[in-house]
Amino acid sequence: MSDVRINLLPWRQRLAAKRRRKYFIALAACAVLPGAVVAMLAWHTRAQVDELRAHISILAEANQAATDIVADQTLLAGHIEELQAWQVELDRLERQRSTFVSLWTELARLLPDSIHYQHLMLEDHSLEIQGFTASSPDLATYLRRLETSQVLDSPRLIDLKDEASGKRFGVQATLRTEAPAVPGR
Known about the structure:
Blueprint: H1 10-110, E1 115-123, E2 126-133, H2 136-147, E3 152-163, E4 166-175
Antiparallel strand pairs: 1-2, 2-4, 3-4
């Protein structure tokens, strides 16, 4: 007798092999698929974290820029206040300069040839003039001129001394508070 085997149920073997393949495929899918999902989630989470870090970095730079702007603004406000104080001082000096120019112009215009100034002192609106003259009539003329001045008010003789070469005198006057019209302007 020969040893011949006849398989009466080959379809069961094929079905069993097919089931085994499906089982191993499912087993491989169960092992690989969660790992792939975890890797995808990790990649996505890392991408979001990187995006948030970049956004935080941009916001930190914007915050630093805003802080720098506030510091610059404070510095500029200090400079503006300083410049405004300088402007007030410059305006005061300009008014003073105008007063000095009009005073010197008036004193030069009123001065006769025979009188010489030795000392002029201006405090607030009070002017003290000390000078030297050769004769008393010239001094009287000078005082009358001071009385008609548009810049000076109430001049008065406060000191008169006779010396060998002439007379030393002192005059006090106040500056007018309203600004006189400067000739030529």
